[in-house]
Amino acid sequence: MSTEPRxxxxxxxxxxxxxxxGGLVVALEDALRSSGGVWVGFSGEVTDDPxxxxxxxxxxxxxxxxxxxxPQEHDEYYLGYSNSILWPLCHGRPNLMRIRPEYLDGYARxxxxxxxMLLPVLRPDDRIWVQDYHLFPLAxxxxxxxxxxxxxxxxxxxxxxxADCAALPNPAQLFDWLSHYDLLGFQAERDLGAFAESARxxxxxxxxAPDRFRLSGRMVRTQxxxxxxDAAAFITEAADAPDSDxxxxxxxxxxxxxxxxxxxxxxxxxxFRAYQLxxxxxxxxxxxxxxxxxxxxxxxEVEAYQDIREETEHLAGRINGxxxxxxxxxxxxxxxxxxxxxxxxxxxxxxxxxxxPLADGMNLVxxxxxxxxxxxxxxxxxxxxxxxxxxxMAEALIINPHDPHDLAVAMAQAMRMSQxxxxxxxxxxxxxxxxxxxxxxxxxxxxxxxxx
Length: 452
Ligand code: ADP
Fold this sequence. Notes:
This protein is of the alpha/beta class. Helices cover 44% and strands 19% of the residues. The protein is built from 16 helices and 16 strands. The strands form two sheets. The chain has a ten-stranded mixed β-sheet, sandwiched between helices. It has a six-stranded parallel β-sheet with strand order 13-12-11-14-15-16, with helices on both faces. The chain is globular and about 70 Å long. The mean pLDDT is 94. The structure holds adenosine-5'-diphosphate. It comes from Paracoccus marcusii. Belongs to the glycosyltransferase 20 family. This is Trehalose-6-phosphate synthase. InterPro entries: Glyco_trans_20.
């Protein structure tokens, strides 16, 4: 048995047993396996009797503590405060917030319930690692119950600057919640900067050292840990995917791919408009480029997600109507998730990977696209400057997604880029993706949490 202290991971959702494992799940399960511990999270079930359930993970190296949500909790904590207030706020869209007092009540209540169910399984030297924006108040709730263990938070999405934070009904409360953590982890320097500025302006935060903040009379450490992917697995899956030639012959065009949840933060309408501009300006590209956009809808109960679905479907239809020929469909727009090995094969076939969010914590698709390329004949990554990934992926074509001209020029440049330039850019990008993979991320975070 390991001599490391146990690890308690708390996340909004427990991974499903039959999930096609994402990189984050693999990394957190590896960390749990090596030190033992418990992964705590929502089961995905909405029921009237949400009792917690503690079970051994298959292999018994760690346990899983799952809980259901009542319909009211699901509305107020998950769809409400988390995804109709914090998500738009952190993605620079305060105008899309739906502020209702009952959302905050539900959010606080669920976090309190998680703290109470965690208490009996906690041991004095456990380390607790809280994931993401659904759980900001958890450390405060645990401290109120007398828990003194090291508690860290990692925010997977951007941190809002002072102008956006000020749109919260009670901005100081956010910083009070955060002050109970020992370590706050962010995706990018940009987020750490926004946190520092917002804490100073809205909560009298005092930066006492580059990585130390005094907040509500407590000391909190802050650090940037850019998350990565399971690069080795992706490289193998993409290389093992069936050969792409058949697909190229079928379409006779070079493929441009976008893979996103259908979310208003991802800049999908902006990239559709840029593609429309490209086809208007460069008729030579007709029938030589084909755009595959894969975007499964999420959070369909929230109105802003219904709106983005309508807008994107409308635009795709208009572009196809304007440019399609008897043997060419300019955009294929698919609302379905695909298993990871299929995605890896599609990325590898695509001459252009289009990652153009208006705001994004990191964006893992950018890293997956790079890992999936054939190093001898790689495709080109077009990356928004507003993705956290842009801080460490300078060899991509970095664009402003709000500017259709800038994006259309990058598409044209990628279409005609020489193989030598594509190889050079790809080699540099791949090195970063491999060196800073998701195992590196979780190891680095946990080392920092352990040094108090
Ligand atoms: P976000 O977490 O906001 O959705 P990221 O780009 O960081 O954005 O992560 C998205 C993850 O979801 C990636 O690992 C990507 O492969 C996966 N994904 C997105 N769309 C699909 C899809 N259609 N099928 C399967 N996986 C998908």
